[in-house]
Amino acid sequence: MICSKCRRPAVIYQRYSGLHLCRTHFEADFDAKAKRAIRVHRWLSSGDRIGVVHRGERDSSALLYFLQKVMGRRRDVELLSISIDEGIRSYSDTSLARSFAEKMGVRHVASSFRGMFGLTFDDMASHGDSRQACSSCSTLRALCIERTAREEGVTRLAIGSNLDEEARSLFLTFLTGKAERIIHPPEHRGGSATWIKPFIYIPEREVALYASYHAEGGRCRRCPHASGGLSADIRSILAMYDRNHPSTPYALVNLGDRLGGLGEAGLTHDRDSRQCTGWDEPVICSCRSCRMRDEVADV
To answer: Residue 281 is inside which H or E element, if any?
Structure first.
């Protein structure tokens, strides 16, 4: 196929826009969407130190590449790579992230569950409920990232969440009735660093294509502690629906933006963003954080 904007061969067809794009116009479109997300959400200010949460796989490496490309010449903004070693055998590895960050000329910082909590996640999982493994790991990982960010003076934490991932997360939130996570998303909580998602309006397959051009990294391996359940069902449901209605992920993410705006406008008053005395971290659900503290202490 031929690019809809020039006569060069197309590398991708965007079903939602009806456009065939060559590599040049695809990358221009990709960069414009990511820049728009940063601009609309006001995710960048002079003096920011941005920590890219870098797993070493291609998606987060693509995010690091993009931010270095956009901000590398700015003297008023600093970029660094942050990796967390959860201590999961055959899964956790910060070496790829370090290698790519060094290639990009970006300082890399690594932390670990063992260093912060005294245990690996494999140790914790062997004593806990395997059905809650993903949720527990996510909570501890976020705490580890936020503490590392605070120690490094980071003002923004960038993650490579894409349009499809965000849509699945929102749909899961709707189904589980956890409205407070939409009204008060993580990037609006009272922490030392704001969480940002520059790829939030870009489909998963487009992030993968962009990463194939610019990012190095390993494949996204499946965590041995991961389970299927509702998350897997939601992936299948949305994938099936998206085949006939390609604008569905955009509709879900836009709805999430609108509902999040209600919280910013002060139209709801049930937010719990107290400082957790157990972890010394600001979290939406201090009860959840303290519960994790007790579970780790019991191992």
So the answer is: strand 281-282
> Which secondary structure element, helix H or strand E, spans residue 239, and what is its range?
helix 229-244
**Domains assigned to the chain:** 45-218+228-298 (3.40.50.620)
β-pair partners for 85: 112
Digit-coded pLDDT (tens) for 71-120:
888 889 999 999 998 887 766 778 889 999 999 999 999 998 888 888 88
Distance CA 167, CA 253 (A): 6
Residue range 33-61: average pLDDT?
92
CA distance 133 to 227: 8
Name the DSSP letter for residue 184.
Answer: S
Angle at 252 (CA atoms; ends 251, 253), nearest 5 degrees: 95
Distance CA 84, CA 80 (A): 13
Q: What's the burial of 283, exposed, middle or buried (CB within 10 Å: 0-12/13-18/19+)?
A: buried
Residue 229 tokens read as 């359940």
* Helix-then-strand count for the chain, H and E: 12, 9
Q: Where are the alpha helices (DSSP H) in 42-189?
A: 58-71, 95-103, 113-117, 121-125, 133-152, 163-176, 180-183
Residue 3, token pair as written in the block? 């690019």
Encoding tokens for residue 265? 């406008």
DSSP, collapsed to helix, strand or coil, labels residue 263 as: helix
Q: Which amino acid is at 172?
A: L
Q: What's the rounded Cα separation, in Å, for the pair 181 and 183?
A: 6
